[in-house]
Amino acid sequence: MNQNATQPQSPEPDPFVEVATLSDIEPEEPLHVQVQGTPMLLVRVGVEVFAIGETCTHETASLESGFVEDGCIECPRHGAKFDLRSGAALTLPATRALPRYPVRLADGRVFVSPQPKG
Ligand code: FES
Questions:
Q1: How far is CA 50 from CA 8, 12, 15, 105, in A?
Q2: What is the pLDDT along the chain (118 residues), one digit of tens a residue?
Q3: How far is C-alpha 25 from the chain's CA centre?
Q4: Best residue among 41, 52, 59 to mutate for probing ligand 1, ranked by most atoms within 8 Å of CB
């Protein structure tokens, strides 16, 4: 018997959690959700849904009432803009990117992982 044989590993648990349906998310109107204690915003742009951090990285303003246009969200407090796809801070006064979270769409349902993208 091979002493070095490895036991079959159980698959990693799927981190995705169902958080909404597509019809819950108005186009370009951020929807606040909590995924396993992590606050985030879902933003629907065309056929895509992005999940980003709920709080501006400049100070602590919520981006829930942020203005969405051209694939970006603008902080309502001081006007920093963030790219929804990359999370990058595009304009001052913010200099740090927003966390982004993986999104899956299936049959009109929206699933998000609370583990931020790298
Ligand atoms: S708190 Fe968002 S730009 Fe200042």
A1: 35, 24, 17, 11
A2: 455 556 667 778 888 999 999 999 999 999 999 999 999 999 999 989 999 999 999 998 999 999 999 999 999 999 999 999 999 999 999 999 999 999 999 999 999 999 998 7
A3: 13
A4: 59
CATH assignment at residue 61:
2.102.10.10
Task: Let me know if residue 6 belongs to a domain.
Answer: no
Distance from Cα 96 to the centre of ligand 1, integer Å: 11
Q: How far is the CA of 42 from the centre of ligand 1 (A)?
A: 19
Atom of ligand 1 nearest to the CA of 59: 1
- Structural domain total, the chain: 1
Q: By alpha-carbon position, which residue is closest to atom 4 of ligand 1?
A: 78
Ligand 1 centroid, distance to 23 Cα (angstroms): 29
Residues 6+ apart with CB under 8 A from 3: none
Boundaries of domain holding 75: 17-112
| Any domain includes 12 | no
pTM: 0.89
């597509």: which residue's tokens?
22
